[in-house]
Amino acid sequence: MKGAERIEIDRRYCKGCMLCKYICPCDVYDLGQERSDLDYLMPHVARIENCKVCGLCEQHCPDMVLTVVAKKKGKEKE
Amino acid sequence: MNPLGEKYLRKDFLPFLFCPGCGDGMIVQAFLQAVDDLGCVDDLALTAGIGCSAWIGVYMHVDILKVLHGRAIPAAIGIKATNPSRKVVTFTGDGDCLAIGGNHLLHAARRNIDMTVVMVNNQIYAMTGGQVAPSTAVGSKTQTTPYGNLERQLNGCKVAIAAGATMVSRWSTAHPKQLIKTFKKALNHKGFSFIEIMSQCPVQTGRYLLGSGSPQFNFQWLKDHCMKEEDPSKWAEIEAQGNIPVGDFLQVEQPEFMAEVARMNQRVKEAQAKGGDR
User: Fold this and answer.
1) Domains of chain B by residue range
2) B27-47 residues labelled b (16+ CB within 10 A) or e (exposed)
3) Touching check for A69 and chain B: CB below 8 Å?
4) What is the pLDDT of residues A3-48, one digit of tens each?
5) For residues B257 and B114, is the Cβ–Cβ distance under 8 A?
6) Contact criterion met (CB < 8 Å) for A63 and B15
7) CA of A20 to nearest chain B CA: how many angstroms apart?
8) CB atoms B26 and A38 under 8 Å
9) Closest by Cα among B274, B202, B200, B212 to B244
10) Are the C-beta atoms of residues B204 and B133 closer than 8 Å to each other?
11) CA of A5, closest CA in chain B: separation in Å?
12) What is the distance between the alpha carbons of residues B184 and B31, in angstroms, rounded to a whole number?
């Protein structure tokens, strides 16, 4: 089963449009309380265990700030 | 910044000047993905006119020429004429391409010049504050038509097909996968490619035409109203319901203008070498 190791949000450029939260089929994001450098409320990665690394949020982000880092294969075996 | 952005964007120009939730950023990403997959970044030459969507090319680390309002297509023809090995792409908006530069679109399509025109359609003049554009639907209330728009809508894809473009597609920002595929096809296509992209503009289109400034609402509107239909005979039915037909409408092979010019030059040179004048 695919899973995400972490989701990086670049706080320098995020404009808080929350399209990532809207587009995510697995309900990974919540509206966070932290502000980006441009003074918008950023999304918060609340449920990373739900993430299937489909890449929809990455593809739909208008400011290209999201990076979904997938778990490395074979990590579970170790 | 995602890896694609790290690789191809001009860091000193960031952040994007687009409003929160604007579709133009998605188009930057889809285009960069297509360019990355094809590995043709060094061959690219971009031109742009004026408008929000003209800024799409500015953020990419490729050669770009930013010119007068509506004149992006003639500048692109110039680049293509001087260096035919370049893949020339023009980013333009609906006002830039259909209103101010409408004539240039017709004649570039008619000559079948090997270039790609990416028209980002948000159905309004967004950068200047929400005035009526040729692509605005009849009856819409905008800043300059407070009692409803009386002018009929101009359909960019139909204009391009009628003018003789050899590849015509329309997608929306809600179709990123299809968009990447179409960008790749257009970059490899020998001839005039016209891609219309329906894009959300929460600030102006959302406020004036759709009734909500929420990016999510505007995005969902595109998802609900863009219907895949590649058969032109069924467009009227879809448009009557207030929906927008999308798809890859046309791709044909026709003699390309710059290749024909090169062939003519060759022919004349050979004739002159034999002693004739043409």
Assistant:
1) 18-273
2) bbbbbbbbbeeeeeeebbbbb
3) no
4) 888 888 988 999 988 999 999 998 899 988 989 888 899 998 988 8
5) yes
6) yes
7) 10
8) no
9) B200
10) no
11) 15
12) 9
B84, B122 contact by CB (below 8 A): no
Condensed to tens digits (0 to 9), the pLDDT of residues B214-265 reads 999 999 999 999 999 888 888 889 888 889 999 999 999 999 999 999 999 9
What local confidence, expressed as pLDDT, does residue A78 receive?
45
CA distance B164 to B32: 28
Domain B18-273 maps to which CATH number in 3.40.50.300, 3.40.50.9100, 3.40.50.970, 3.30.950.10? 3.40.50.970
Compute the distance between CA of residue B32 and CA of residue B56 in angstroms, rounded to an integer.
11
* CATH node for A4-70: 3.30.70.20
Confidence category of residue A75, pLDDT binned at 50, 70, 90: low
How far apart CA B193 and CA A14 sit, in angstroms, is 33
Smallest CA–CA distance, residue B23 to chain A, in Å, is 6
Which residue reads 């030459």 in tokens? Answer: B45
